[in-house]
Amino acid sequence: EGVEFYAAMQRDRHLAWQQHGYQELEQEADVAALHSLWQELQEVSLNAAEFELSRIGDSSPELAGERINAALGRYRDYLALFERFATPTGADAMPDSAYFGGYLAQRGTGAAALRMGGDNPTSDQIELAVSSFTQAIDLYPFDRLLWGSLAATLERTGREAEYLDIVKPIAQKVSRSSY
Length: 179
Description:
By secondary structure, the protein is an all-alpha fold. Helices cover 71% and strands 0% of the residues. The protein is built from 7 helices and no strands. It has helices at residues 2-12, 27-54, 61-85, 97-116, 123-139, 144-155, 163-176. The protein is flat. The two termini are 36 Å apart. The model has no long low-confidence stretch (mean pLDDT 89).
């Protein structure tokens, strides 16, 4: 329900944003409300995923798999929201922390994919982990441990030679960044 409301506010913010209760407020208040709502949606998604993963403990393999799938679902929900609005026309109504949330969801997706496979993840699980770790590094390249996780994940399938091809564009983007 919150996602639909966010989408409606995002859609109407340049047209009829007053219909959402901002008749007498400046448009900055509308953007502030969008930021607050985003923060709540982000926290719910990421906390729900972490909660599911924290409950694995000594679970049976079947129950552990269900909990990992539930966590992956929460991460996917957040990433779908992020990808939907992290566009040139929508990004100004997203808080900066939304990008860090995207990084956390991608990192969590990769880790959960590997965890799903236990000691012997499938090639699909490894590919999901590689893709997720790569996207996480692209969003937040300052997690030194994640670069190593990507390398180790590639190494599990004998693909360590691909590491440089994957990370070089990200490193070049960071080196040219003004931040």
